Task: structure prediction
Amino acid sequence: MSFFRSASMAPPSTGGLAGGGSRGAGGGAAEEPGPSTPVRRASIPRSPTSERTQALKDYKLTIEYKHLKQNAPGGVLVVPSFDDLRVWHGVIFVRKSLYANAIFKFIVTLPPEYNDHNVWPQVRFTSEVYNPYVNFETGELDIRSAIPTWDPNQHFMVTVLTFVKKIFYMKDFTALRRPANREAKMIFDTDKVEFKRRVDHCVIASQETVYDDQNNSPLAFHQPSAAHDALHTAVLNMGSDGSLTVKSKDEVLRACQSARPLVE
Result:
């Protein structure tokens, strides 16, 4: 089963902003703007070569995103922001390990220069995560500890998302020399019971905040309603013959129709 969803993507805006002033009516020295006088700013034109280069990078990024539809690691879902192709909202559903049943949300930010040599994406967890690879204060994942040199011919977003998943299934952090969370690493090495207690705390917190959406994420979750429960029951009843395989979209539509009276 794929955990990837597509979404409409808007291209990032181009062109920078530069400060500028206004000149006097007589063509003399520039006047200092008063407290209520807005400073006019003009867009810095980009060369055609620069625009083509950026357009090519954006195109390559859309190819990477499409590639994830078949190759994203299980349990990991990412969707681009409504406003920026280079900001992705993600979530990971952890099924096993110390972090079992956690639902951790994160944001991926890709610099305009991505995917150049030594240009790393940034992954920041918006859920509370207690892990030696994650800065507890900022939520940032230490990607460079796993990929000290970014090679655009070898490393892609699927590499990063695989690492996002991997940190929650590790059984040992001994090889980590410079942990992003030194306290977590120390407690893991000296007191496994206390480490497990703190992990349990962040797992529960992730479940309790799963419906929060402070970042205008396209991956917003909503409380289940009576309609969801009715449809869930109807779909399960489709397998009353012992087969849980949905054979056609018509069967799903019939299940939806049968659930309607239960909601109304």
Notes: The CA atoms of residues 135 and 180 lie 5 Å apart. The helical segments are 48-71, 157-166, 182-190, 192-208, 226-237, 249-263. Strands lie at 16-18, 42-44, 76-80, 87-93, 103-109, 122-125.
